[in-house]
Amino acid sequence: MNSPHANAVPNSPPAPSDASVSSEGRAVPRLSLRGIEKSFDANVVLSGIDLDVYEGELVALLGENGAGKSTLSSIIAGLFPPSKGTMAWEGLPYAPARPGEAIEAGVGLIHQEMRLLPDLSIAENVFVGRLLRKGGRIDREAMNRRAAEQLHRLGLDVPPTTLVRTLRVAAQQQVEIAKALTLKARLLILDEPTAALGGEETDRLFAQIDQLRQQGVSFIYISHRLEEIARIADRIVVLRDGRLVATHPTAQVPVPVLLENMVGRKVDRLFPKLEEPAGQDVLRVEGLTGANGAFRDISFSVRAGEIFGIAGIVGAGRTELVRAIAGADPLAAGSIFVEGKPIHFRVPEDAIQAGIVLVPEDRKGQGVVLDHTVASNLALGNFDRLAPHGWLMPAKVVSFATDAIKRLGVKGRPNQAMRFLSGGNQQKSIIARWISRSPKVFILDEPTRGIDVGARAAIYETIAGLAREGMAVIVVSSDLEEVLGLSHRVLVLARGRSQGILPRGEATNVAIMERATA
Amino acid sequence: MATPQTTKEGAAAQPAAPAPAVRRGASWAGKLIGVQGPLIGLVALCIVFSLTTGAFLSFRNLLNVLDQVTVLGILSIGMTLVIIIAGIDLSVGSVLAFSMMILGWLSHDWNLPLVVAIVIALLAGALCGWANGLLVTRARLPAFIATLSMMTIARGLANIITDGRQIVGYPDWFDSFATRRYFGFLSLTVALAIVLVIVSWIFLRYRSAGRALYAIGGSAEVARLAGIRVRNVTTWVYVASGLLSGLAGIVLASRLDSSQPSAGLGYELDAIAAVVIGGASLSGGVGGIGGTVVGVLIIGVLHNGLNLTGVSPFIQQVVIGVVIALAVSSDTLRRRGS
Question: How many angstroms separate the CA atoms of B262 and B159, rounded?
Fold first, then answer.
C-alpha cells in the first residue's frame, strides 16, 4: 500500500488538475473516509464514519471525551488501521501502515498531550526524525534558521537552540505546531491546540491557520471551545459514542444545538443558579507574594457561601497563587487568615488542618493515584480521621468511600482502580475526598479541564453545593465562561499582579480580557 | 504426597478449567498474603525439587532453607518498604558489613559488652539509612545515586575499621541465636525474622503510616497535596532499611561466628530480586510483605534445590536470572491482561 499514496504526494501544489475534478464539478476531496469502523477487542469505538475534507477547508470535530475523536485522528495519521472501511487521499486509496507513511502522504497530527523531547533544543524537536543534513553531517545552521522562521511566524521569538524543557507550556505547544507546519503537511489534525494558549497566542495561531488555508492546507480541528470553533470552522462535525451524529455546513450553529448533539439530550442550563452569600469573611489574604516571584502583593477576602473566581491568561500566576494558599508552595511575604486567625504553613498538611483544601490543576499528576483503588484515593487526606490511633482498617475505608461516592454521585465502585473512572468522576472523587472534612475554604484549580461538556454541569452543581453549605470557594479557570458563570466575584491577574476584583454584574468577557491582557 | 499436589496445581494453573473449589482456595490464599502468581511458582518449584531429589522434601532440609534465607529475608523487608515508595536501596549489603564490623570491633578491640556493641551496631546501620534519607529528601539526589554512594562508603568504612581483617569468635550465647533450635525447629534468628515479617505485614496493611507509603509510591505529589509529610516519611523508610540491614549484619555474624568486611557483597541485588519477584513494581505504589516472603523463599528454594541436585554454581546463576525474568514478565503480562 505504499505506492498509491506515494503517487498522491506529488499532486501538490493543489491546483486542481482535470483528473482531480469529479463529475459533479466539485474537487476531489483531499481526504475521504467511507464506512470507517474501529473496534478494540470486542469494544466498538467507531462505526460507519463517512467524512470528506476538501482543499483549504477547516472541519471542526466535536464530541465528548470517549466519543472517538482521538481514535479517528489516529487512524487518519496511521497510528493504527481501521477495522473496516476505506480511506482515499486525493482520490487514490490511502491506507498508511505506519505514521511515517501518513506523514509522507502529507498528514500532520498534533497531539493534545505534547510529544516533545524536553532535553533537546527547539530546532532539534522541530526536525526530529528528519534532521537536515549537508554532506553527511547535521546541518544545524539550516535547522536553526528554518525553525526560527517558523516560530517567528507563530509569534514565539525564542532562540531555536533553547532547550524545550525550559519553555512554558504555551510555548511548547507552539513548538509542536511549528513542527507540523515544517512538515509541509497538506492536512493538519490539531487536537485541542489552544488548551494551553492565552488569547494573544490563540490569535496568532488562527492567523497562521488562515494563511495556510489560503495555500490550500486542510484542517481537522478538535476542540472543546465552541466560541473558537465558531470563529474559524467551515463545517462542524459532531461525534457521539463512535458515530457521526451531525454535520453542520456552517460554523454558525447555536451552542445549545451543538451541546445537544454532543450529549445526546437537551442541555438547558450549564451553570447553576447562585445564591447570594450571607456569611462572614472566612478567608482573608494580605500582600501575598510567591517565593518564586510568580505573583506579588495579592490581597482579597472570600465570604462563607461565596464563589470567588480567579481569571487571567496562562502564566499570570493563578495556579501559583492558589497553591501557595493551600500550603503547596512557599510564600515570600504576606499573611493568610482563616476566620480571622493567622495561619502559617510549612507543608500542605498545615493548610488541610486549618480547613483549606485544594483540588489541583493536574488531576492525573497531582489529584489521584491512577493505579490505586477509588477507596484508597478517597481515604488519602483523611487518614487522621479514619485511623484515630493509626489503625486504618480496610472495611472502614471501603464504607467511608461508599458513603462519599453516594454523596457526590460518583460513577464508580470503591474497589475499582481510579484509572477506569472518567475524568469527571475522578474530579468528583477528589472533591469527595475533601468534602467529608467539611473544610472552610475549598479551592478548585481548573475544575473541568479535559472533562466532557455533559459532565461539566454536574461539577458546576457540586461546586455551587459547596458554597451553599457555607464554604468559601475559590475557582481558578482559563475558561472565561466558566469563571463568569460560576463566580460571585472575579479577581483578574496579569503577570502576577492583581488587576482588580470585579463583582458579578461588572464581570464580562470584555472587562476581564481587557484587564487580563493589560 | 507429590501426586495429588500435582493435580491440584495443574487445576489452579489453568484458569479455564472449571474447578471452582480449588480456585476459590487459591484466591483465598492469595488474598491472605496478597500474592497469587509467585505463590504458584514457589509451589511448582517445591514440587519439581521433591520429584528430582529425595533430599529436598525433608523437615531438616526445609529448616535449612529457612536458616539460609533469614539474612536475605530481613534485608528484603526493608527493601520492600523502600521499593513501595518508588525508591531503591543499593547500600543494604554494604551497611550489613559495616554494622557487622562495628559489632566485632567494639566487642573485640574495645572490649565493650556485646549487648552494648549490638546496640551501637544497629544504630550505625540506622545512621547510614538516615544519611540515605537525607541525601534523597534534602539533597534531592535520585535514590539510585544516593544509595550507590552509601554502598561504596559503607563498604569502605567496613574495611577501614580493621584494615580489611576479619574478626573471628563470638561468645557461645551469641552464636546460639542462629544455631540453637527451640522446640526442635525454631532458632532465635528465624523467629526474629518471622516476627519482623508479621509486624511489617501488619504495618503495611493496617497502619495509616503503612498505607501512606503506597500513596507516596503511587504519586509523591498527590500524597504531598493530600497532607502526607512525604519527606519525613521517606527519610524514615530509609532509616528503617538501614536499621534492618544492621540487624541482618548481626544475624549473619551470629551465623558465621565472625565479622567479615566482605560480607553481604551483592545482597542488595538479591533483596531487590526477591521484592520484585514478589510482585512489587520498581515504579512504586505496588507490592507487599506477603509477596516478598514468597520471593525470598523462591530464591532460597532455588539455591537449596539446585545445590542438592548438584547443579554447578555457575549454572545456578543462569537459572536464577531466568527465574527473575520469567516471574516479573508473567506478572506484567497478567496485569496487562486484566
Answer: 8
Answer yes or no: CATH 3.90.1150.10 is held by domain A277-355+441-455+472-518. no
The number of C-beta contacts closer than 8 angstroms across A and B is: 79
In angstroms, the separation between the Cα of residue A409 and the nearest Cα of chain B is: 22
Percent of chain A with pLDDT over 70: 92
C-alpha B140/C-alpha B152 separation (Å) is 19
Question: Residue B207: which of A347, A372, A391 has the nearest Cβ?
Answer: A391
CA nearest to A222, candidates A406, A22, A76: A76
CB nearest to A392's CB, from B207, B224, B285: B207
User: What is the average per-residue pLDDT within A445-453?
Assistant: 83
How many structural domains does chain B have?
Answer: 1
Domain for residue B9, yes or no? Answer: no
* Residue A376, min C-alpha distance to chain B (Å): 8
Across the interface, whether the CB atoms of A369 and B219 are under 8 A apart is answered: yes
Domain A1-12+25-106+185-265 in CATH 3.40.50.300: yes
Closest residue of A to B213, CA-based? A380
Neighbours of A376 (CB within 10 A): 25
Q: Which domain range does residue B273 map to?
A: 59-327
Closest Cα partner for A232 from A257, A248, A246, A250?
Answer: A250
Q: pLDDT by residue (tens digit) across A367-413?
A: 999 999 999 999 999 999 999 899 999 999 999 999 999 998 888 89
Lowest mean pLDDT among A22-26, A282-286, B203-207, B296-300: A22-26
Buried b (16+ CB within 10 A) or exposed e, A3-36: eebeebeebbebeeeeebeeeeeebbbbbbbeeb
The pLDDT of B330-337, averaged and rounded, is: 68
A366 vs B contacts (CB less than 8 Å): 219, 221-222, 225
CB A352 to CB B227 under 8 A? yes
**What span, in angstroms and rounded, lies between the C-alpha atoms of A272 and A270?**
7
A348/B223 touch (CB, cutoff 8 Å), yes or no: no
Domain spans in chain A, listed from the N-terminal domain onward? 1-12+25-106+185-265, 114-183, 277-355+441-455+472-518
What are the cell numbers at A359?
Answer: 483540588
B33 in a domain, yes or no? no
* A277-355+441-455+472-518 matches A1-12+25-106+185-265 in CATH topology: yes
- Cell numbers given for A154: 507563530
> Is the confidence metric ipTM above 0.90 for this complex?
no
